[in-house]
């Protein structure tokens, strides 16, 4: 019987393995500009472990598929059980998965842990189709909002209640987030219509903005520069154009801008 | 009186009208083919939707006037409308997940094979079976009809998250289209439930003498587990849909919080009180994914069952670790009920709850890995014959490895942060779920075609189809890992809007070209399928020298499946190349004391 | 007894296949017949599915109850009457089964008729209960507790109506004497009917007690 198919399958698998490995070793992640290096490390570890398994299992698949093709006089082995072998690979897999489990739980706990005391506070409200960024101002408190107070002409998209004393110093921007290098920031995410997702690819930050909830996430920008905000949860026909910008400036820059 | 009725029945050929034989048939084989062919048609439609999605993503600035002239509702001056894009990915997902990949492997092959593999004349409830197909078909019609309503088809994603799906003006398509989506899904779920009742009752109650549970082929185990999964998980989506209907049409607030502002207009009544209050969109997500996760295993388990049986047959070797294979499928099924929250890690639900879901998600990798190791061990020292079904089975193993491993990335909730809702996820589920299911269906088709139509499919065309599909499939979905890691979001009408995505458009082009080749390659399959069904070489009862009970029937089996008595089963279905037998296989019905029968105590 | 006609030709009209061909008792070291009557097994599977629907709604209810806008709902008085009516309908149904076992056909019909009547009474009573709530100003959308009340009782009554349709079919079969002596022809219907009664008690518990 022709051995062509087995050969083809083995070759195709080899091509897959080589191409996949070569491509996976490139830098796909945008350069990291936050304190969430642990996520990048976890990605590299995942790549390494799953990569080894990927290469090994595919090589076996390719080899066995090619080597054990039917030939004249060949007889297949009837052996179909080896409890010791099976327990070994089951336990080995379980151990690896448990290692992943514990690592990921502790990483998750870190990310969702308490923000530092000196973190600056900012509120981001996702709407169809913009990000309304609000700073609490020197009083550190956000003014009350009420949906009935929305006033498009005054660019009051979130219904800020001007009569609330805390609202006086609130500063609002559309699609522009200004952060300070090395200064932790707590972002309080809200939505006034549908679910959006606040995605900062360079910072490894992503958090859904859920109507009815205020969800907080915090991080530390570590490098000055200009970065993008994207929406990562389908929110309607303008989902693709919910683009915003993050401006990270150094502490001196920030101080100078405040003084002005 | 009963006797003479029986004799009279015997005396003349049982006349059935065309309508009761082929249309409102109660014969499981006909029903299976009905489901299969309908699923195929739905697949063509959903596949065309995917082609349009890919054209848009790769060429957002392209001129699609030609498509625009065929689909004026979706295009304006050669440019696709963004809401149409949303309808495309919504309906592609909905149709593929439910109306194609839950249907062809489960309702199609389940109906065809279960009575043949358990040794029964038909399913336990043949009338209910007929009803189930005729409930499914209107569901298809309703879902497709939703494209033609004024505000268009549902456009909130196949996941239909509220408030987007609950508020009629949140997106075009959340009008009548979303309602029809719910109605179509209700028909589908009713049909699937009827099927599940039939599957379980038949498998538990109608196995022929000697067919214990552990002597069932893994295909049968898969159908058994899928039926349980469906019966227990679909009701959650029904509950969710009922509440969604109420929110949409009767003013309730199950999913809708207060203080909503739609297009700068607050949702309040005349007195300024919020029209919605206190609801939670997270509630929908919990209900949806409680179904949603077992659902993806409903798609995948039959393919895993097929693959084991195909690999065993074409390697001329027993499946390695049969008990573990059963155990692995049972474990996967059980665990599938406690991992649904991994779709919601970034949703705003309690981080502690997320941690709980990471546990099950990491654990479910263990039985999955066991299956891969056992398949590899089955190939060792085998005598592999690479006929078309075997190629597909090997393809399933390959895709299962590729798609399964990326699941380990996503299951780590923190790693999920940059990857959630990107093309990395799209790669993951298209490789493992869609790919495994699709390849499983193709393999099963090539293998069991003789029992469907009494003929064999063309080998050369089959191989050409496999290679084109296999290469194009990887070409389409594997590169999505990379662009996903780079941050490319999913469900994005125009990625070129973002600076950080610009450099990835080359990959989008490559993916789209691969997808077009993938789509076009299916023509080979349709030609092969329909030509062979009518003109293919007639098949013997057991053209593959396989061991299962279905291969003791004629090809195709007649009414009642076995012309005489139903055979008894004397061994498991994996006696390939037992050392003490002359032939390289011993059928399940063979009482001779060789192979498994020789190893175990005499019955 | 079910006719033992050759199954080869049977166009598989709904339901039962004769034991000999269906892998019943001759199980030996394998084979089916574990479950006995396939129709009853199928019904229990369906009841499991139906239960899961209400489990889903229960969890939605419990979660939603945590939101601040939840207001208690005073059950309309007619609900207790309806409960009594529904329980009574189960009692008459059991009585009908007993009469059937004794092959007292007229007695069976009487008690069965009672079940049908009481069932219809329940449905009417539920409509009255809704009417009373609306009159009191407790609309579907005004409060989540209300919303759940209408959804849960509505779903329950929908299934009860399907039960009434089944009742008509059973009643018809009884009149046509399509049930043989010794057959517990009411068993399947009774299982469904009692389940709905039990479900009702559960819903009362969920909505007003827990």
| Shape field of chain C | elongated
Low-pLDDT ranges of chain C? 1-31
CATH H-level superfamily title of the largest domain in chain C? Cytochrome c oxidase, subunit III, four-helix bundle
Structural class of chain C: mainly alpha
Number of helices, where a helix is a run of at least 4 consecutive DSSP H or I residues of chain C: 5
Which shape of chain A, going by the Cα principal axes?
A: elongated
Describe the strand arrangement of the main beta sheet of chain A, using strand numbers.
3-2-1-5-8
- Mean pLDDT reading of chain A: 95
User: CATH superfamily of the largest domain in chain A, called what?
Assistant: Cupredoxins -  blue copper proteins
| Number of helical regions of chain A | 4
Total count of domains of chain A: 2
CATH classification class of the largest domain in chain C:
Mainly Alpha
CATH fold description of the largest domain in chain A: Immunoglobulin-like
Q: What is the number of strand segments of chain C?
A: 0
Secondary-structure map:
The complex is a heterotrimer of chains A (260), B (603) and C (210).
Chain A: H1 4-24, H2 37-67, H3 83-111, E1 120-127, E2 130-135, E3 171-174, E4 176-180, E5 185-191, E6 196-200, E7 205-209, E8 215-219, E9 225-231, E10 244-249, H4 251-259
Parallel strand pairs in A: 1-5, 4-10
Antiparallel strand pairs in A: 1-2, 2-3, 5-8, 6-7, 6-9, 9-10
Helix pairs in contact in A: 1-2, 2-3
Chain B: H1 2-11, H2 18-23, H3 28-58, H4 65-70, E1 75-76, E2 79-80, H5 82-100, H6 103-118, H7 126-145, H8 176-205, H9 218-249, E3 261-262, E4 265-266, H10 281-315, H11 322-335, H12 351-363, H13 365-379, H14 388-411, H15 416-419, H16 423-453, H17 459-477, H18 479-485, H19 505-535, H20 596-599
Antiparallel strand pairs in B: 1-2, 3-4
Helix pairs in contact in B: 3-5, 3-6, 3-7, 3-19, 6-8, 6-16, 7-8, 8-9, 9-10, 9-11, 10-13, 10-14, 10-16, 11-13, 13-14, 14-16, 14-17, 16-17, 16-18, 17-19
Chain C: H1 38-64, H2 78-101, H3 105-135, H4 144-175, H5 187-209
Helix pairs in contact in C: 1-4, 1-5, 2-3, 2-5, 3-4, 4-5
């Amino acid at each position: 019987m022709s051995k062509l198919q087995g050969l083809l399958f083995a070759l195709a698998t080899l091509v897959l393995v080589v191409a996949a490995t070569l491509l996976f070793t490139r830098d796909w992640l945008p350069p990291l500009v936050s304190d969430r290096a642990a996520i990048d490390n976890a990605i590299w570890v995942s790549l390494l472990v799953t990569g080894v398994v990927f290469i090994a299992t595919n090589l076996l698949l390719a080899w066995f598929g090619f080597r054990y093709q039917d030939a004249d006089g060949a007889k297949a082995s009837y052996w179909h059980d080896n409890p010791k072998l099976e327990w070994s690979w089951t336990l080995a897999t379980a151990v690896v998965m448990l290692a992943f489990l514990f690592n990921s739980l502790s990483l998750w706990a870190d990310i969702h842990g308490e923000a530092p005391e000196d973190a600056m506070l900012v509120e981001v409200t996702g709407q169809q189709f913009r990000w309304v960024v609000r700073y609490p101002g020197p009083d550190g408190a956000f003014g009350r909002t009420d949906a009935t107070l929305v006033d498009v002409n005054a660019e009051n998209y979130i219904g800020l209640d001007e009569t609330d004393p805390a609202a006086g110093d609130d500063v609002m921007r559309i699609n522009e987030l200004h952060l300070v290098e090395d200064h932790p920031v707590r972002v309080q995410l809200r939505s006034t219509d549908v679910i959006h997702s606040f995605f900062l690819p360079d910072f490894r930050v992503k958090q859904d903005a859920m109507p009815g909830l205020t969800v907080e996430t915090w991080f530390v920008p570590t490098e000055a520069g200009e970065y993008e905000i994207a929406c990562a949860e389908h929110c309607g026909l303008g989902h693709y154009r919910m683009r915003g910008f993050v401006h990270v400036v150094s502490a001196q820059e920030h101080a100078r801008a405040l003084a002005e | 009186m009963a006797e003479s009725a029986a004799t009279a029945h015997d005396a003349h050929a049982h006349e059935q009208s065309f309508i009761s034989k082929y249309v409102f048939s109660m014969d499981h084989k006909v029903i299976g083919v009905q489901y299969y062919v309908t699923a195929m048609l739905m697949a063509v439609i959903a596949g065309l939707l995917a082609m349009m999605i890919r054209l848009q993503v790769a060429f957002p600035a392209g001129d699609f006037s030609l498509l625009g002239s065929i689909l004026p509702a979706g295009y304006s001056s050669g440019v696709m409308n963004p809401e149409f894009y949303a309808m495309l990915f919504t309906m592609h997902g909905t149709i593929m997940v439910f109306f194609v990949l839950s249907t062809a492997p489960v309702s199609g092959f389940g109906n065809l094979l279960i009575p043949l593999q358990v040794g029964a004349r038909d399913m336990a409830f043949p009338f209910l079976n007929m009803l189930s197909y005729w409930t499914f078909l209107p569901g298809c019609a309703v879902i497709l009809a939703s494209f033609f309503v004024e505000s268009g088809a549902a456009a909130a994603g196949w996941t239909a998250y509220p408030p987007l799906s609950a508020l009629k003006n949140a997106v075009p398509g959340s009008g009548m289209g979303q309602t029809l989506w719910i109605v179509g899904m209700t028909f589908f779920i009713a049909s699937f439930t009827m099927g599940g009742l039939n599957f379980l009752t038949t498998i538990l109650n109608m196995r022929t003498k000697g067919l214990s549970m552990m002597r069932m082929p893994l295909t049968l185990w898969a159908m058994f587990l899928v039926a349980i999964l469906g019966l227990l998980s679909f009701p959650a989506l029904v509950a969710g849909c009922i509440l969604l209907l109420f929110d949409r049409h009767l003013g309730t607030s199950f999913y809708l919080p207060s203080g909503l502002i739609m297009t700068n207009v607050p949702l309040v009544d005349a007195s300024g009180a919020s029209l919605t209050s206190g609801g939670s969109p997270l509630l929908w997500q919990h209900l949806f994914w409680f179904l949603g996760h077992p659902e993806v295993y409903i798609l995948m388990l039959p393919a895993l069952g097929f693959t084991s049986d195909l690999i065993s047959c074409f390697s001329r070797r027993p499946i390695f670790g049969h008990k573990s294979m059963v155990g692995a499928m049972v474990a996967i099924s059980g665990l599938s009920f406690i991992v649904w929250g991994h779709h919601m890690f970034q949703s705003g639900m309690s981080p502690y709850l997320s941690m709980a879901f990471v546990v099950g998600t990491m654990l479910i990798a263990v039985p999955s890995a066991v299956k891969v190791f056992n398949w590899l061990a089955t190939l060792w020292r085998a005598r592999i014959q690479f006929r078309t079904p075997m190629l597909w089975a090997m393809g399933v193993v390959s895709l299962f490895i590729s798609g399964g491993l990326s699941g380990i990335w996503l299951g780590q909730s923190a790693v999920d942060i940059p990857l959630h809702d990107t093309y990395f996820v799209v790669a993951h589920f298209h490789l493992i779920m869609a790919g495994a299911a699709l390849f499983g269906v193709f393999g099963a088709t090539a293998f069991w075609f003789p029992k469907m139509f009494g003929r064999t499919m063309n080998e050369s065309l089959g191989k050409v189809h496999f290679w084109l599909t296999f290469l194009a499939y990887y070409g389409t979905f594997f590169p999505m890992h990379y662009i996903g890691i780079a941050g490319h979001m999913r469900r994005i009408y125009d990625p070129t809007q973002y600076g950080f995505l610009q450099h990835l458009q080359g990959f989008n082009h490559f993916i789209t070209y691969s997808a077009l080749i993938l789509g076009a390659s299916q023509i080979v399959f349709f030609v092969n399928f329909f030509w062979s069904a009518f003109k293919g070489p007639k098949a013997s009862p057991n053209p593959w020298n396989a061991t299962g009970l279905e291969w003791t029937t004629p090809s195709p089996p007649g009414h009642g499946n076995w012309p005489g008595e139903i055979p008894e089963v004397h061994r498991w279905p994996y006696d390939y190349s037992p050392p003490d037998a002359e032939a390289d296989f011993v059928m399940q019905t063979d009482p001779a004391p060789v192979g498994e029968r020789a190893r175990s105590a005499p019955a | 007894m079910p006719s033992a006609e050759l199954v080869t030709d049977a166009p598989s009209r709904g339901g039962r296949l004769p034991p000999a061909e269906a892998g019943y008792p001759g199980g030996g070291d394998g084979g089916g017949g574990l479950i006995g009557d396939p129709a009853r097994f199928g019904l229990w599977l369906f009841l499991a599915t139906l239960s899961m629907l209400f489990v889903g709604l229960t969890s939605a209810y419990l979660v939603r109850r945590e939101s601040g806008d939840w207001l208690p709902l005073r059950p309309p008085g007619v609900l207790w009457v309806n409960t009594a009516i529904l329980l009574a309908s189960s009692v008459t149904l059991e009585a009908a089964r007993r009469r059937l076992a004794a092959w007292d056909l007229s007695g069976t019909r009487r008690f069965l008729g009672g079940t049908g009547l009481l069932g219809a009474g329940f449905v009417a009573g539920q409509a009255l209960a809704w009417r009373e709530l609306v009159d009191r100003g407790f609309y579907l959308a005004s409060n989540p507790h209300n919303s759940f009340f209408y959804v849960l009782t509505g779903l329950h009554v929908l299934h009860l109506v399907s039960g009434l349709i089944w009742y008509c079919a059973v009643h018809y079969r009884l009149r046509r004497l399509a049930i043989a002596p010794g057959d517990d022809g009411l068993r399947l219907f009774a299982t469904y009917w009692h389940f709905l009664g039990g479900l009702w008690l559960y819903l009362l518990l969920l909505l007003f007690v827990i």
